[in-house]
Design brief:
single chain, about 170 residues, alpha+beta, 5 helices, 4 strands, about 15% strand, globular
Length: about 170
């Protein structure tokens, strides 16, 4: 259906604003999780598995706020360019289409010596945080499905990052 739309942001102040709003979203999530854990603990109630798992992520997110407070951009990493892939709602596959478009940009950018990185934290915050949705100023009804940062890398790595083995199921 070709509904993918891309917003490209190069303004440093706007990029910082988006990063700060993303951190704010996660800081609010931390407060909600901490509050819920305290309520349950003070009431002598068992902590649900989902909340316990979320608590593990919360500790990682807390470091984002600390980094931001030190003047470090923990979300967009001072990238010179941010690409927001979004789409209006439609009966097709808007998320898949946006991710395919983003991956095409990743592959093309590599041929030009550019580095890129998916920013899932901003994508998540854009789905659930109205202040960030407002700051993105997308057409009404559009949803963010993928975010990339691009720039010339300062470092070149000689080997890939270690990854967990892929789970593959063969069926004949």
């Amino acid at each position: 259906m070709q509904t993918v739309q891309i917003k490209i942001i190069t303004n440093r102040k706007r990029i910082k604003q988006l990063s700060d709003l993303t951190v704010e979203f996660f800081m609010e999530m931390i407060n909600q999780v901490d509050q819920k854990m305290t309520e349950l603990a003070s009431g002598g109630k068992e902590i649900p598995q989902e909340l316990a798992e979320r608590k593990l992520f919360v500790d990682r997110y807390r470091r984002m706020g600390q980094a931001r407070d030190l003047g470090i951009d923990p979300i967009l990493h001072n990238a010179p360019l941010v690409m927001v892939f979004h789409s209006p709602p439609n009966p097709s596959t808007p998320k898949d289409d946006c991710v395919i478009a983003a991956q095409t940009v990743v592959l093309g950018s590599m041929t030009m010596g550019l580095g890129s990185c998916y920013i899932g934290l901003l994508t998540k915050a854009a789905l659930d945080y109205p202040p960030l949705q407002e700051a993105l100023d997308l057409p009404p009804g559009n949803t963010v499905h993928s975010v990339l940062v691009l720039g010339y890398p300062k470092l070149k790595f000689q080997k890939a990052v270690d990854r967990n083995p892929l789970t593959v199921q063969w069926e004949e």
